[in-house]
Automatic annotation (TrEMBL):
Single biological process term from Gene Ontology: dicarboxylic acid transport
Membrane topology: Multi-pass membrane protein
Gene: gltP_2
Alphabetized PANTHER family for the sequence: PROTON/GLUTAMATE-ASPARTATE SYMPORTER, PROTON_GLUTAMATE-ASPARTATE SYMPORTER
Membrane-spanning ranges: 45-65, 77-101
Name this polypeptide is given: Glutamate/aspartate:proton symporter
Length: 285
């Protein structure tokens, strides 16, 4: 861990968390210390980010002066390719959801556009959480399932952030002339799948994960400067994607649990699925 090897840190953290959970109440003092440390580090990161605009301005100005406006063209191409990837990802999510839930998934997509737009403008998927929960319940997902699946999704199903982390890491590697073999790229994806779990749904949270991953593959962390100037524009897209993917996930789980969303959806209404024993009890009463 002294060499900032992120994979070893992740494995150690998993075993530490399991051990703390196993001993129960005796671990509470350590858990409180770790929780306090997390808040301190987040506050420290916030102070550092206050000076980030000046740092990014100076770094990008120096980069343009040294290499010309071609750097801006490369950044523009990167943004275009990333949003094209997000468009394909949305199409896949909607297609898979339609196969499971039915054609009425289009109604959910329209309903979720409002909280997704909020996440897009604020660059925070957590800001759209209340609106997403409300839209899911109006669509027909029970409050029990929506309030259970959605928070879990915000910790373990940040599809947009995961896509960005892998996209950005490969971009920085190419910009720094670091060749990644196919095996290294697969390993990188596996590491990002682990390190992105529990990522905060707040602006610029992905940058922390990317910085930790770069060192594992001997990619200069200074390459992050190439992205910091355009990251706010990319953050909006991945935040909206996180909201959409979690809403689709909640609808799919709801469908698996036998809930019905109205005309145009697969499955039967809950009242048509009552067990025989339950039906007989109603008749007797």
């Amino acid at each position: 861990m002294a060499r900032n090897e992120i994979l070893q840190i992740v494995v150690f953290s998993i075993f530490l968390g399991c051990s703390l959970a196993a001993i129960g109440e005796k671990a509470e003092p350590i858990v409180k210390v770790l929780d306090s440390l997390v808040h301190v580090m987040l506050k420290l990161t916030g102070y550092v980010m206050l000076f980030a605009p000046l740092t990014v301005f100076a770094a990008i100005s120096g980069l343009i002066a040294e290499r010309g406006l071609g750097v801006m063209v490369s950044a523009g191409i990167f943004m275009g390719e990333f949003y094209l990837t997000l468009g394909m990802l949305w199409a896949i999510l909607i297609g898979l959801s339609t196969m499971i839930v039915g054609p009425c998934i289009g109604r959910l997509t329209k309903a979720i556009l409002e909280p997704a737009l909020l996440a897009f403008t604020t660059s925070s998927s957590e800001a759209a959480f209340p609106g997403t929960l409300d839209k899911l319940e109006k669509f027909g997902v029970s409050s029990k399932i929506a309030s259970f699946v959605l928070p879990i999704g915000y910790s373990f199903n940040l599809v947009g952030s995961m896509a960005y982390c892998s996209f950005a890491t490969v971009f920085i590697a190419q910009a720094c002339n670091v060749h990644l073999s196919m095996g290294e790229q697969i390993t990188m994806l596996l590491i990002l799948m682990l390190t992105s779990k529990g990522m905060a749904g707040v602006p610029r949270a992905s940058m922390v994960v990317i910085a930790a991953t770069l060192n594992q593959f001997n990619i200069p962390e200074a390459g992050l400067i190439l992205l910091m100037g355009v990251d706010p524009f990319l953050d909006m897209g991945r935040s909206a994607t996180n909201v959409m993917s979690n809403a689709m996930g909640a609808a799919i789980v709801s469908r698996w649990e036998g809930e019905h969303f109205g005309a145009g959806c697969r499955g039967v209404a809950p009242e048509q699925k009552r067990p025989a024993s339950e039906t007989s009890e109603v008749a007797i009463s």
